[in-house]
């Protein structure tokens, strides 16, 4: 199995997920708490300032009424006890500054934040300061306004505290996530890994009877294991059904093959017996025809011709019987192991053919090849058939060349017999080796149609092969192989 | 302090409030256009304001509140302008000029100025024991049994309180008022005065 380089373990993903979830929840929670705290802090600051303003206002009524700024200033001095308050200003009803505590806020001096005539109270956020204005009412009319400015520095301080606490909790979350991931490795990743190992060993050994161990850790894991085991069960059933049907098929094929072989052997034995038994009567006919031809001077020309045809027919029949016997023998007799010199056999057959028809101009090119391990008698039949065929199918040419050789092709010796004779239609190359199947008419080239079938059978019995190449009037080449080392 | 004065001026002359707001915030040039209020103008305003810090005993805190003036006619004219359309705790205000002791009855506040200094004792005698707040700018007003006495301190109108006299007439005076008084004359400690 190949694992991608950047693949992650499940437990690693769970760790990351835990961190992501807890981190974002924490950040959201801190944000929410911080916002709420800021709001409530601001509100409480406003409430405090309002209370201060109300007290100062109530205590400054007489000072404002009877024009006593010193008294008002001493009242404002009471803001000492409020650490958040930076400055305060008391103005008269028409807005002029009456008394102040600390340096007056720029916003008041510049007239940027002034309480409207109809307003009784207002507050402004001015940078890092909160400014609250409160109208001082006495006997139903306004006598002045008190402005108090407070710092919001504490908000920044609180934000730092929140950040620190959030950081600490995040650190704890990370530790917890690591702990959980090591637990989850045991709870989640391990059962999956063991299941995967089981699957792998099954696919390697093809043993479908193995079952994954049921997991009790989680519902999903036990479902997965169950489904996996069910699938194994299915595969096992299918596989055994397949094997059964294959075995049955094999058995049937064997039976049929045996039946066919038996039938074929009977048929071959029958034809051998027939051919063998035909030889006796034929010999008598041949002998009698010979005697009759010896007394041909006493016959009229018509009868003489009939005797000649009788002799030709008996000769043909004798050839046919020989071929049939050869064919039958090639199928039946056991293959012997001899040291066979194919070159020698080829040279001898070439000599016989030349002596039979000394007038023909045929060049024999016969390569000097190493001896082979084969049945000498059967290999003689092979060479005889192939060379005789070449001799026969070049007979219509005034000059011919017949070649016997071998070449090493992809590690095995391929022998060939080549001629430049009549050849054959390449589309019919497969039919050449069928018994009694002829590509040329008997009048064109005489023959029984058994020779090549016999050759093929002999080579097959040796464990070799034969095939042919050719084209009409371009000659034919017969290739054959013999297994090496037996 | 100039701005504080202009505040007073605005109340005296009923200068529109918006104009005041515009002029008053640190606008020194604006001050030059405002003439300094006279001592009697300030005293008229304070007289009216005292009413807000005094509680009259039950029975004499209903109906229109009378501010009686024994003094210069110009003062009462100025005071009439100050109290016009005003009220204290829902009580409308009226200004009465009195010359002698004959019609001092029903006065919630009695003001005696320096022009009436010869009659001061007489007038104070007449309202003694009655729920009348006596205010004057006569020197030694307090030692003659008066309750609040105006004084000029550094060109500003301030006042002293005779808490004993106030207590004798069953009036309740706010501690806020005492806070801004320059002197409180009392046999009892100041904190206990109410």
Give, in spatial order, the strands making up the sheet with the most strands of chain A. 2-1-5-4-3
> What sequence of helices (H) and strands (E) makes up the elements of chain B?
HHHHEEHEEEHEEEHEHE
CATH superfamily of the domain at 10-164 in chain A: PAS domain
Average pLDDT, all residues of chain A: 86
Approximate strand percentage of chain B? 15-25%
What's a quick, concise take on this entry?
The complex is a heterodimer of chains A (486) and B (194). Chain A has 486 residues and is an alpha+beta fold.
What does this structure look like?
With 486 residues, chain A is of the alpha+beta class. Among the domains of chain A are: 10-164, Beta-Lactamase; 335-481, Histidine kinase-like ATPase, C-terminal domain (Heat Shock Protein 90), CATH 3.30.565. Chain A is built from 9 helices and 12 strands. Chain A has helices at residues 10-65, 69-76, 106-109, 153-205, 219-294, 301-332, 342-356, 376-393, 451-462, and strands at 85-92, 97-101, 121-126, 129-138, 141-151, 338-340, 361-366, 372-374, 399-409, 412-419, 465-470, 476-481. Chain A has a 5-stranded antiparallel β-sheet with strand order 2-1-5-4-3. In chain A, strands 7-9-10-12-11 form a 5-stranded mixed β-sheet, covered by helices on one side. Chain A has a two-stranded antiparallel ribbon with strand order 6-8. In chain A, a hairpin with a 5-residue loop joins strand 11 and strand 12 (476-481). In chain A, helix 5 (219-294) runs antiparallel to helix 6, helix 6 (301-332) runs parallel beside helix 9 and helix 8 (376-393) packs antiparallel against helix 9. The mean pLDDT of chain A is 86. Chain B is α/β, with parallel strands linked by helices. Chain B has helices at residues 2-13, 17-24, 28-33, 39-53, 73-83, 117-127, 163-168, 175-180; strands spanning 54-55, 65-70, 87-88, 91-97, 109-112, 133-136, 148-153, 156-162, 172-173, 183-185. Chain B folds into 2 domains: 2-33, no CATH class; 39-192, Response regulator (Rossmann fold). In chain B, strand 3 (87-88) and strand 4 form a beta hairpin. The longest helix of chain B has 15 residues, at 39-53. At the A-B interface, helix 1 of A face helix 1, helix 2, helix 4, strand 8 and helix 8 of B.
